[in-house]
Amino acid sequence: MNLIERPRRLRRTGTIRALVRETRLSPEDFVYPLFVCEGEGVRREIGSMPGVFNLSIDELVKEVEAARGVGVQSVILFGVPDQKDAAGSQAYAEDGITQRAIRALKRETKETLVIADNCLCEYTDHGHCGVIEDGEVLNDPTLDLLARTAVSQAEAGADIIAPSNMMDGFVAAIREELDESGFEHIPIMSYAVKYASGFYGPFREAAQSAPQFGDRLGYQMDPANSREAMREAELDCEQGADILLVKPALPYLDIIRAVRERFDLPVAAYQVSGEYAMIKAAGRLGWIDEERVALESLTSIKRAGADIILTYFARELAGRLA
Questions:
Q1: Helices 227-239, 253-262: crossing angle, 10 deg rounding
Q2: In Å, how far are 18, 85, 143, 149, 212 from 269, measured between CA atoms?
Q3: Which tens digits make up the pLDDT trace of 169-201?
Q4: Distance CA 173, CA 169 (A)
Q5: Active-site annotation, residues
Q6: What pairing do the DSSP bridges indicate for beta strands 136-138 and 131-133?
Q7: Bridge partners of residue 193, in order along the sequence
Q8: For residues 208 and 124, what is the distance between their CA atoms, to the nearest angstrom?
């Protein structure tokens, strides 16, 4: 008797499919990116990111509490200061917008895990991620400012520091400064593999961080390269990173998989603003089922190997998953 294989047996009902499902999303997988700005009562929607807002600190606290109500336990903060300068001094100011926001969250929502993005582009008047001289981003002088920023964020109460600027040696510089300042217990979630991507456009509107000249191709990674990604991740491991992050996520699922297979550290992936905006736009036009596509996209990121997913859909979809 000839027997044919019948995989469909395990797809017949929703209960069976759930029983044998290989990849599961949970609200605990998510980190919710939030943009905090000056003022009071400010909830200003980002035009290219429907459902995402610039939030004053009081509104930020409300948003985090609402996210916690549906199971989202972790957030990452991006500061949008009113004043910017060439050195990005508000990034490391004791009373900077991010530092004040961290203190407020740790005071009002004590159990929330607060991750502090560590970069200068939101705080510089030129929009680049470091110190500029003769039109060039200087690597080593920038490291000093990043390390200083990390300590100020840790002093404010940040649980994890997430350097995202792609300067050479940034993890080592931050780890050394944190340790010397008594913050050896604070983990670093390194943006180990950050590509110079066209998917960041809406974020630059949200954070008001578009470069005023040139581009970031000289320090973020070439999208064509994968072996270089492994080198970057390995260097960050050697320098003391605790979590490795790949950004963007969906166009780089192969990189997420490669990082997962090669390194034992937890792997994070950032579903960036452009990924979110495309799903939102197509959903609003009725071209796709927005929720279904968003969940499918996030599932693919986890299936590729990400333990942690940074996504603007965190609050919106967490209740659906619960």
A1: 50
A2: 25, 30, 24, 23, 28
A3: 999 999 999 999 999 999 999 999 999 999 998
A4: 6
A5: 194, 247
A6: antiparallel
A7: 246
A8: 10
pTM beyond 0.90, yes or no = yes
Q: Which two tokens stand for residue 137?
A: 């981003």
Tokens found for residue 296: 């499918």
The pair of structure tokens assigned to 303 is 């299936």
Distance from CA of residue 47 to its chain's centroid? 20
Indicate the length of the chain as a whole number: 322
DSSP assignments along 189-212, one per residue: EEEEEEB--GGGHHHHHHHT---S
Q: Which domains can be identified in the chain, with CATH numbers?
A: 26-321 (3.20.20.70)
User: Residue 133 in 3-state DSSP?
Assistant: strand
Q: Are 298 and 25 in contact (CB under 8 A)?
A: yes
Angle between helices 57-69 and 314-321 (to 10 degrees): 20
Tokens of 32: 């919710």
CA atoms within 13 A on the CB side of 215: 11
Distance separating alpha carbons of residues 285 and 275, to the nearest angstrom: 16
Residue 82 is which amino acid?
A: D
pLDDT tens digits, one per residue of 201-255 = 888 777 666 666 656 677 789 999 999 999 999 999 999 999 999 999 999 999 9
Q: Return the pLDDT at 259.
A: 98
Which alpha helices (H) appear in the chain, and where do they start and end?
A: 14-20, 57-69, 97-108, 139-156, 170-180, 201-207, 227-239, 253-262, 273-284, 290-304, 314-321
Cα separation of 226 and 235, whole Å? 15
Instruction: Report yes or no: 188 and 240 within 8 Å, Cβ to Cβ.
Output: yes
The answer to whether 176 and 147 are in contact (CB under 8 A) is yes
Find the helix packing angle between 170-180 and 227-239, rounded to 10°: 10
190 within 8 A of 241, measured Cβ to Cβ: yes
Number of CB atoms found within 10 A of residue 293's CB: 15
